[in-house]
Amino acid sequence: MSLKLIDNDNKSKETSMDEMLRILEERHPHPVSVIEMASIVNVPVEKVKIFFRFLAKYSFIEYDEQRETAVIHADFLSLEEE
Description:
Helix content: 40-55%
Low-confidence stretches: 1-13
Order of helices and strands: EEHEHHEEH
Strand order of the largest sheet: 3-5-4
Number of helices: 4
CATH topology of the domain at 32-82: Arc Repressor Mutant, subunit A
Strand content: 15-25%
């Protein structure tokens, strides 16, 4: 699953959301902290929290608000293979 933006040169480039999904997939089944994710993709912590809450709302990830960590659901990983 990929969300692409087209720049002025008509070339695709990876968005921060794509990068966060890729990291969650690569780290599965281990959790990724909000702070770690924010530093890797160079996005403010609050934006990562919003994105994680969105993904959790639709059951793509398990988001622990107390620990501020996320783990992608195995069911979501299988969508790429279909």
